[in-house]
Queue: 3 jobs
Job 1
Amino acid sequence: MTYSSEAAQEKRRSFLDPRTKLALVIVLALFVLGGLGGEMMEPIKRVLSVLPFLMLLAERQWKRFFRGLLMLGVGYGLLFVMPYLHGVLNFLALMCGGILTRFVVTIVMGEYLIATTTVSEFISAMERLHMPQAITIPMSVMFRLFPTIVEEWRAIRRAMGMRGIRLGGNRAGEVLEYQMVPMMTSSVRIGEELSASALTRGLGSPVRRTNICRIGFRVQDGILLLLCAATFASWLLELCGVKLW
C-alpha cells in the first residue's frame, strides 16, 4: 500500500499541522471577521489577512488563490470608489466592500483547511487535543460534507442543463423546482450517509483508534502559533491601556 510507506506519507503531508490551521481559522474569525479589537488591531489584521493566501501558495492551490485574491480585490475596489459615489450606490459599495474584505479572508482560510487536511489527519489532531467525540465526529463529517455537496450540485446542474433547465434557458422558471429541491434532498441524504460511514469506521467506539497519517509541529507551525499568541497578547495589552503603536 503506497500510503503506508514513510516516503509517501511525507509527500502527502501538508505544509501545516491541522492544529495550526484550526488556530489560524479561530484567530481570523475573531479579529478579521469579527472585528475584535477594533481599529487598534488594524496593523495586525493586515498581517493576518495575508496569511491564507501565503498558505495557498505554499500548497500550490492556484485556483483557490486567484479566486480569493479576485474577491478580495473587488472588495477593496468597492471601498476605494465608495467616496465618489452618492446615495444608494454609496451604501451598496460600503456594504458589499465591507462584507467582502472581512468574509473572504476567513472563508479562504477555512477552504484551505478543508482542502489540505484529510479526515484521518483531522481526527488524529483532535485526539491529540483530547477533544470529546461529540465534537470530533460532527466536524470530521463536515470535512467530507461540503466537498461532496459541491460535487452533487455540479452533477445536478449538468443534468438539468442538458434538459434546458438553467438560468437564461428556455425553462429558467423551473430552476428552483428541478435544481434546488433535489439539492436539498441530496444534502440530507449525503449527511446521513457520511454519518453512518463515520460510525462504521469506528469513530464512535470507546476504544482509541490508530492511524497511519503523520502530523506534528514543525518550524512553520511554531512561527504561526507564536503569531496567534502574539495577536491575543497584543489585544490584551491594548485592553489594559498599553499602546503598542
Job 2
Amino acid sequence: MRLILFGMPGVGKGTQAKILSQKHGAIHVSTGDMLRSNVQNGTPLGAMAKTYMDKGELVPDHLIIAMIEEVLSSPKARKGYVLDGFPRTVAQAEALETILWRANVPIDRAINIVVDEEEVVRRLSGRMTCPNCGAIYHKYNQPPKTPDMCDQCGHVGLVQRNDDKEETVRHRLEVYHKNTEPVLEFYRKKGAIVDVDGAKPVEEVTASIEALVQNGKA
C-alpha cells in the first residue's frame, strides 16, 4: 500500500495513516510528527520550523522535501508508505514525483478526506494537553474526569498548544485553502485522487480507503 492522504487539518489523516500503515506493514510518514520531534529536540530545523508553526503557517518547502526524500529513499519505504501531511504545495507535489521516480515507489492512490470546515474548527480548537505527562484531551469529545486536571498524573492546569487555538486554527484553514487546494487539482488532473467522507466512523473511513486502493489496482 502506497498512499497520500489529503484533507484539512483535523479531518483524521493521522488516525487513518496509523491504522493503515500498521495493518499493511507500511511506514507512516507524518511531516507534522517529524517537525514536532525536531522542535522538541531543539534541532536547527526545529528552531526554524517553530517560527512558522506557532503562527499556523506552512514550513518552507525545502525544509520538508529534504526530510521526505531521506525517508522514501530508504529500504523500509519499499514495503509501502502512507504520506500524512505531504505534499501541501504544488512545488512539493512536483518534488515528490521526482523523489518517487528515483526511489521506484510510485503511489497507488491519493485520498482526500472531506469533513465540514466548522466541524474541523470544533475538533481542533477543543484539544488540550497535560504539560506534565503529555496526555491529550478534548473539551468536547474526551474531557478529563475533573475539569482542568489530568486523569493520568493528577497535574492541574491543562494547556492548549498555540496552533490549536481557534484563531490559529482558522488561519491554518485559510493557509490550507490557499496553498493545498491547488495540489488537489494537480492530482485530479492526473486522475489519481478520490474523495472520502471523513465524517463517518473511523472504521468505515478505513474500509472506504482500502476499497479504493484495491479498485485502483484492478
Job 3
Amino acid sequence: MSEEVRWARRPFDGHAISVPLEEDQELTHVLPGTPGGEYLRRFWHPVAMSDRLGHRPEPLRILGEDLVLFRDGSGRLGLLHKHCLHRRASLEYGKVEERGIRCCYHGWKFDVDGTVLETPGEPADSDIRHRYCQGAYPVHEVKGLIFAYMGPPEEQPPFPYLDSFDIPDHDLVPYSIHSPCNWLQESENSMDPYHSVFLHGRVNGPQFPGLEHFVELPVVVYHKRAEGFVYSHARRRDDLVMIRFHDHLTPNFAQNGGMFQVLSEPKTYGRTSLTKWVVPIDNTNSRKFGWRHFNDKDEVLRQGNRDEVGWEKVDFYGQTAHRSRDEMRDNPGDWEAWSSQGPINVHRRECLGQTDKGVSLLRAKLRRDIRAVARNEAVTRPVGTPEAPYHTYGGDTILRLPKDNQDDRAMMDRVQRDVAEIYFAADAYEGEDRTDYIKREVSARFCT
C-alpha cells in the first residue's frame, strides 16, 4: 500500500506532516541492478580529472561501484573494479607497470581491459587466467576530463563529441566539486530558471556580477529535443531583450549562458561559459565534472579567474562547501540550496507550482527513459564526432526591441521561439557556417 501524503493545511499544524515518506527510488537510486542505475549506465560519464592522476592508481566511487583508475607506462588508461578478482585485495595498492597493473597481494597482473596477463603463483600450465577477467570499463579522455562507459559492452555507444568542446577562442579549464546529496538535486537546478530570480537576486542580493537584471521574472520557453531539452528565458532592460539559452541533455548534462555578462548592447549567438555533468557517486553523494570556458567575447566583464578553477573550486559564488558556516547562512548559494534538501529529497513532500515546469518535464522524461531501458528498449543519446559534433545552443542573444505596450511578455515569448527556430534550422550547417547562418537570419528578422 502506498504511503499517504499528508499536508499541513492550517497554522501550527506541523504534526500533520510528521509521518516519514520514502524517496522516489526509480529516479534517485543508482546502484547496480536498480532501474535508474541501469539507465545511467547507458551513457558516458566523466569520472576523473586528468591532472589528478599521478603514478599511483586512483580509487574512485561512481554509480555505487568502487573502482581504480590508472595510466600505465605506455600511456593507456585503465578503469578496473577496485578489488582484485583473486583474493579481493584493493588495486589502489597495486603497482602500475609498462603494461597494466599488478596486485600487491599475490602479483596477479591485469591489462587495462581487465584481461588477466599473469598469475605468477599458479602452475605454469594453469589456464585460470584465460577463464576470468578483472571487471573493467572503457574510458575516453578529452581536454583534461576522463569519461567512462559502465553499461553492457554490447550496448556501448560511440563517445558523443559535442560542439562546445571546440568553440573558437574558448579556453576550457576542468573542474570538479562534490555534493553530499543525490545527483538529481543538483542536476534539476539547471532546469529551474526561476531560482536565479530569488536565490541569486531578490533574497540574497545579486551574486553574479553583470546579471543584476536577473531579479526580473523571466518569460520561459521549453523546447523539447529527443536527447533532452533546450530552454530559453527572456528579460527586458529598457529597449534590450536578453534571451538566454540552456542545454540540458538527459540524464545529467547542462550548459548555460555566459558568466560575468552585461546587458548593454545587442549580441547574437553568444556561447556558453560552463559545460558540466552531475555524476552520481552513490545514492547520497554526487560529483560535478565540467569545464569553465574562458573567452573575453562571451564574458565581457572579464572577471573570470583560471586560478580559482579546479578540484573543489570554481570562480563564481556559492558552488562548494568550502566557505564558513556563517557565510553559508548569511549568503547561501546553489550548493546550499541543493544539498540542504537532504541526502535524498523526498519528492512527495514537495508542493510544486508553475515555476517548476522544467523540473517536472525533466523528471517525466527520466522516468520514461528509465522504464524504456527496463523494457530493453533503446533510448536516444547524443551522437557526434570531432568532424560532425553534436550541436548545442547554450549562450545568449540580446536584441534591441521596443516594448510592446499591449503585451510585452507575449512578445518576448514569440521572439525567443523565433530565435530558437533559427538556432535549430542552423543545424544543417557546421562550424562557422552554422554561426554565420544564425547571425544572418537573426539580423534579417530582428535588426532591420
